[in-house]
Design a protein that fits this description.
about 5% helix, four-stranded antiparallel β-sheet
Length: about 150
């Protein structure tokens, strides 16, 4: 049976063309916005590694990612993605720039699910905290000067 070995949210990734090694850059656990509603920055990638348990048994499956808002209500979802592990033991999946609009600060959740015989089951949930950006120091100094 294929399993999600790990998943993370990051800024981006690169694959070495000679070795096929992959580098994931800048894990993301929090994003700040200056105002709300806000679109999530277009540099978030959801990266996953799927692996099958038995190398002798070819497998294929589908997965999807559901975005939940701070109340854990579904805000959006990806279309199901097909994975064929007939010739490979593992599969790297990367969803780049999922479309997300955030109404207010709070934690959002990326729920990764796998289709198990026609029924979607949870594999993991990745939180990303959305915070309101504080006033930049230069603006705070200027505002204090104006009050004098």
């Amino acid at each position: 049976m294929a399993r999600l070995q790990w998943a993370l949210t990051c800024r981006d990734f690169s694959v070495d063309s000679e070795t096929n090694n992959i580098t994931y850059r800048d894990a993301i656990e929090q994003v700040k916005a200056t105002e709300f509603p806000a679109d999530l920055p277009p540099f978030i990638t959801i990266s996953m590694l799927w692996r099958r348990d038995d190398i002798e048994i070819p497998e294929s499956f589908r997965y999807r990612v559901i975005l939940e808002d701070k109340n854990r209500d579904e805000a959006s979802r990806t279309e199901p993605n097909e994975v064929d592990l007939a010739d490979h033991e593992r599969f790297r999946a990367n969803i780049v720039n999922p479309p997300i609009s955030i109404e207010e600060p709070g934690t959002i959740w990326f729920r990764i699910q796998k289709d198990e015989n026609g029924k979607w089951g949870d594999c993991t949930v990745l939180p990303v905290e959305i915070k309101e950006m504080e006033e930049p120091v230069s603006e705070a100094i200027e505002a204090a000067r104006e009050q004098e």
